[in-house]
Amino acid sequence: MSGFRDDARAWLAANCPASMRTPIAGEREWVWGGRRATFFSDDARVWLERMAERGWIAPAWPRKYGGADLSPEDTAILDEEMRRIGARLPLKSFGLWMLAPVLFEFGSEEQRLEHLPPIARGRIRWCQGYSEPGAGSDLAGLQTRAVLDGDSYVVDGQKIWTSHADQADWMFCLVRTDARAPKHEGISFLLIDMATPGIAARPIRLISGASPFCETFFESVRVPAKNLVGRAGQGWTIAKALLKHERALIANARDAATAEEEPLETTARRYGALGDPILRDRVTQASLDGLCNTLALKRSAELARAGAEISMFKYYGTELSKRRRELRVELAGFQGLGWEAPGFSTAELEWVREWLRSRASSIEGGTSEIQLNIIARRVLGLPDGGK
Amino acid sequence: MTFALSEIEEQVRATTQKLVREKLPIAHLRALRDSRDPIGFSRERWRELGRLGLIGATVGEAWGGAGLGWAALGLVLEECGRALAPLPWLSTIACAFAIERAGSDEQRRANLPAMCAGERLVAFAHEEGTRHSRDAIATRAERAPGGFSLRGEKVMVLDGHVADALLVSAGAADGPRLFLVAASAPGVVIERTFTVDSRNAARVKFDGVAVGEADAVGRAGADTARLVDALCDRAAIALSAEMLGGLEEVFERTLAYLKTRTQFGVPIGSFQALQHRMAIAWCEVELARAVVREALVAIDAQRDDVPLLACAAKARAADAFTLCAAEAIQLHGGIGVTDELDVGLFYKRARVAAALYGDAAWQRDRFARLKGY
Question: How much is the pTM?
Answer without folding.
Answer: 0.89
